[in-house]
């Protein structure tokens, strides 16, 4: 008997790959607002806001609050430490275990 998994199980990414995707997307674009970053990486803001906060507290990304009238936007940028993390840690990790590297 075959087991059919719901679609959300087919698109699961490990936390380390979500972190990589966030840093790489910021590196590619220079900076992104919160909505664009979450959307481009295919994430859910409610579920992943704490990860962004954690990445910022570990100095992998920086955020700036921009106020335009009544609208407040959060702009994220990669840090040197974040880019270094991708190239020096995640790149070799992927090469060793997956044979593919996509680092800045």
The helix content is 40-55%
CATH arch. level architecture: Orthogonal Bundle
Overall geometric form? globular
What is CATH's topology name?
A: Arc Repressor Mutant, subunit A
Q: Taking strands numbered 1, 2, ... along the chain, how are they ordered across the largest sheet?
A: 1-3-2
Question: How many extended strands?
Answer: 3
Average residue-wise pLDDT: 84
Number of helices: 5
The string of secondary-structure elements, in order, is: HHEHHEEH
Q: What's the number of structural domains?
A: 1
Describe this structure in words.
By secondary structure, the chain is of the alpha+beta class. It has one domain (7-97): Winged helix-like DNA-binding domain superfamily/Winged helix DNA-binding domain (Arc Repressor Mutant, subunit A), CATH 1.10.10. The chain is built from five helices and three strands. It has helices at 7-10, 15-29, 34-40, 45-57, 80-97; strands spanning 32-33, 61-68, 71-78. A hairpin with a 2-residue loop joins strand 2 and strand 3 (71-78). The longest helix has 18 residues, at 80-97. The protein starts with 6 loop residues before the first helix and ends in a 7-residue tail after the last helix.
Summarize the entry for a quick read:
By secondary structure, the protein is of the alpha+beta class.
Layout of strands and helices, then pairs:
Elements: H1 7-10, H2 15-29, E1 32-33, H3 34-40, H4 45-57, E2 61-68, E3 71-78, H5 80-97
Antiparallel strand pairs: 1-3, 2-3
Helix pairs in contact: 2-5
């Amino acid at each position: 008997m075959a087991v059919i998994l719901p679609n959300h199980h087919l698109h699961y990414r490990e936390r380390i790959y979500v972190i990589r995707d966030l840093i790489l997307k910021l590196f590619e674009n220079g900076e992104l607002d919160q909505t664009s970053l979450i959307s481009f990486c295919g994430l859910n803001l409610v579920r992943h806001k704490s990860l962004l906060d954690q990445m910022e507290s570990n100095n992998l990304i920086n955020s700036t609050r921009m106020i335009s009238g009544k609208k407040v936007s959060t702009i994220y940028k990669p840090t040197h430490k974040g880019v270094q993390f991708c190239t020096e840690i995640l790149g070799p990790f992927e090469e060793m275990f997956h044979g593919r590297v996509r680092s800045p």
